[in-house]
Every structure is written in structure tokens, then in C-alpha cells.
């Protein structure tokens, strides 16, 4: 007998495909192409909107701001970066891994993400508002506010991750696995439709679920 496909389907994620040797180089700039480069050390503001960055590593980079608006990142590793803000609105990320470090604001609003991993990162504010996401893993992260309004998520899973507040207004999802997310509050429980949660998680938000369904609770 054929084995049934797992539900929810897990993300299909591969690590960035990086060369064994990377050249040191200047920080990426607006509209430029960068390939096979490793960046390290402190910087002020790194402005690379509309850039194409492929097979590159940001290794323990500290910067006041990293601007990647409308940029394309393919096979990129961000290792232990420390930045108040990473602004990547409208960006396209494919096989990108962010591991370790701390980011104040990670703005991926209206972005397109495919095979992305966030691992062991502390993020004060993570926005995926309006983003189109396929195959995302968020593991061992601490997140202040997680914004998902109008996002479209496919094969997204959390593991050992905590968030204070999750904005799920108008969220649409397929194979969204929230069992590894400890969230203190969901702004709109109707956006959780089709998501997978544990029984304990559902019990904790039972009152909010009832309110979302128009159920009055009277003891």
C-alpha cells in the first residue's frame, strides 16, 4: 500500500550552494551584481537596492542598516549578523539562510521567498506582510512582533520559536505548521484557517477562536 503524503507537507529547503573559496570584496551597492564574495566586519549603512547577489556570505557583519529593497539574493548566507534594520521590501530570496545574530527590523514585506531558513536569530520585528512565500523554516528564533497580513504562505514550518504577537489578518496558507511556534497572541484567529496547531495551542486561544466564530461563552 502506498504511504500517504505527510500533512502538513514539510518545507523543501536546501542550504545555499556556495563555492569552497569566496573572495573578499567591498560592500554591495545599488543595482550592482555581486557573486562569490564574502563580506565581514563593521560597516555604516550598506545600500544595495535592486542589486543581484549570488553565492555570497555576510559573515558577522555589523551595520547600522542593510538596504536590499527590490534586490535579488540567490544562494546567500547571513551568518551572525548584527543590524538594527534589514530592509528587503519587494526583494526576491532563493536559497537564503540567516543564522545567528540579532536584527532589529527584518522587513520582507511584498517579498518573494523560496527555500529560506531563519535559524537561531533574535528579531524584534519581522514583517512578511503581503509576501509570497514557499518553503520557509523558522527555527530556534525569538521574535517580538511577527506580521503576516495578506501574506501567502506555502510549506512554512516553525520549530522551537517564540513570538510575542502574530498579525494574521487576511493570511492565506497551505501546509502552514505552527506547532513549533509559542505565540502569546494572534491578532486575527480567522487567519489561522488551514494551519496546523497542537491541541495545547488551540486550548490557549480557545476564547479568541470562539469570538472569531461569533460564539458567546457564558458560564
Major sheet summary line:
16 strands, parallel
| Count of domain modules | 1
Q: What's the architecture, going by CATH?
A: 3 Solenoid
Shape: elongated
Please trace the helix and strand order, writing H or E for each element.
Answer: EEEEEEEEEEEEEEEEHH
Annotation field: number of helices: 2
Radius of gyration: 18 Å
Structural class: mainly beta
Overall pLDDT level = 93
The amount of helix comes to under 10%
Q: Under CATH, the topology is which? A: Pectate Lyase C-like
CATH class: Mainly Beta
| Euclidean distance between termini CA atoms | 49 Å
Strand percentage lies at over 45%
Number of strands: 16
Which residues form runs of ≥5 with pLDDT under 50?
none
Keywords:
219 residues; mainly beta
Question: Secondary structure elements and their pairing?
Answer:
Layout: E1 23-24, E2 33-35, E3 37-42, E4 45-47, E5 52-62, E6 65-67, E7 72-87, E8 92-107, E9 112-119, E10 122-127, E11 132-139, E12 142-147, E13 152-159, E14 161-167, E15 172-177, E16 181-186, H1 199-204, H2 206-212
Parallel strand pairs: 1-3, 2-5, 3-5, 4-6, 5-7, 6-7, 7-8, 8-9, 8-10, 9-11, 10-12, 11-13, 12-14, 13-15, 14-16
What does this structure look like?
The chain is mainly β and 219 residues long. The chain has one domain (23-212): Pectate Lyase C-like (3 Solenoid). 6% of the residues lie in helices and 53% in strands. The chain has a 16-stranded parallel sheet that branches. The mean pLDDT is 93. Residues 7-18 have a biased composition (Pro residues). Residues 1-36 are annotated as: Disordered.
